[in-house]
Amino acid sequence: MSAIxxxxxxxxxxxxxxxxxxxxxxxxxxxxxxxxxxREVFDLIEREGVxxxxxDDDYGDYDDDDDDFSDDTAMVxxxxxxxxxxxxxxxxxxxxxxxxTHEAVSITA
Length: 109
Known about the structure:
The protein is mainly β and 109 residues long. It has helices at 32-36, 90-94, and strands at residues 6-7, 13-14, 18-22, 42-46, 75-79, 100-103. It has a single domain (6-103), classed as Alpha-Beta Plaits, CATH 3.30.70.20. It has 2 helices and 6 strands; from the N terminus they run βββαββαβ. It has a two-stranded antiparallel sheet. The chain has a two-stranded antiparallel sheet with strand order 3-6. The longest helix has 5 residues, at 32-36.
């Protein structure tokens, strides 16, 4: 089967790479992907199996304290509506920890 393709405004063909997974072991729950996603693909959830919060040094300049997310609980990003992903790749470009896996998807009838 052939992969899903699209057209740029200039008429060039491109193959979108859709989000397939998030490496929650690397995710620091900064919320950047959540903020840039135009389709509400993500959800911030409590990190399971973690007894203490992520070290604040992991956040660096990424934790800006104006994101409405609690810094008291270890949080991580999860896929909420992965079928709504349009393959723009904004989440991967903004992620400071490179947590995302993307791939082209075949056309299904």
